[in-house]
Amino acid sequence: MEIIKPTTAKDRIILALDVDSTEEVIKYVDLLKDYVGFFKVGLQLFTSCGYKSVEVIKEHGGKVYFDGKFQDIPNTVAQTCINLLKHGIDFFNISATGSSKMMTSTLDACNEYAKKNEIAPPIILAATLLSSFGQKTLTNELGVEMNISEYALKLARIAKESGLSGVVAPDTDAEKIKKELGEDFIVVCPAVRPTWAIVNDQIRIVSPSDAIKAGADYMVIGRPVTLAHDPVAAAKLIITEIEEALILKEKGI
Ligand code: C5P
Fold it and tell me: What is the separation, in whole angstroms, between the first and last Cα of the chain?
């Protein structure tokens, strides 16, 4: 997959399919493929339905983003990501906390595989910090004293130096990341919550308009759409909010 910047508001939405059956996958893809850019296959769906979930998304006209946040020794992650390429998945993430060695090994192995098999090089992102983490967890449990968004920026810097295409970073962390690492370095923002949605288990949440204002290219949204009484209406509201934020951003407001 080439790195193509999203052009429309819809393209920027990655719908998190945190469900357990291909029936539900088909239901959401048929319902929402005209209102979102990508469908996220993550750990819940993959451990329930495996590659079948990816096949049905594609068969029903959706595009796939794979969220595995892989972290293991470099060889294991590299071979795991080659398996994704073998199944036609070319937009996915690994964990920045797995080290620069893990990220470069994975990138090199994937690019080599892509070249050999004459497919486009994948877009590999690094997940920085989970949006369910706050400063307290980072400091008290992981022993990291650094400010949480500074720490996310540090991980993003390592990801960029390792050659990855971008990062997954919550809240408004995109702002500092874009400023230091450049506009072309992709930022996917998770834990997006429009003001009308409930927060669930997320801590560092951000509204679609604030995510855009901060510079996020894509946003991962799950339950505010999937659990809405009318998922299409919810997606349309988010599209409108993104469009309005893009206009303001263009005007520098
Ligand atoms: O339902 P909700 O909108 O809270 O879903 C958020 C999604 O964002 C989940 O699927 C979660 O796995 C994902 N996520 C992510 N990257 C992170 C943190 C969460 O893609 N760093």
Answer: 33
Structure tokens at 102: 């893990």
Is there a contact between 249 and 9 (Cβ–Cβ < 8 Å)? no
- Which tens digit of pLDDT belongs to each residue from 85-131? 999 999 999 999 999 999 999 999 999 999 999 999 999 999 998 88
Can you tell me the distance from the alpha carbon of 31 to that of 232, in angstroms, rounded to the nearest whole number?
7
Query: Which domains, and CATH codes, for the chain?
Result: 10-250 (3.20.20.70)
Q: Which of 69, 160, 178, 213 is catalytic?
A: 69
Q: Whose CA is nearest to atom 20 of ligand 1?
A: 190
Q: Would strands 218-221 and 166-168 be described as parallel, antiparallel, or unpaired?
A: unpaired
Residue in 131, 151, 168, 205 to alter for ligand 1 test, most ligand atoms within 8 A of Cβ? 131
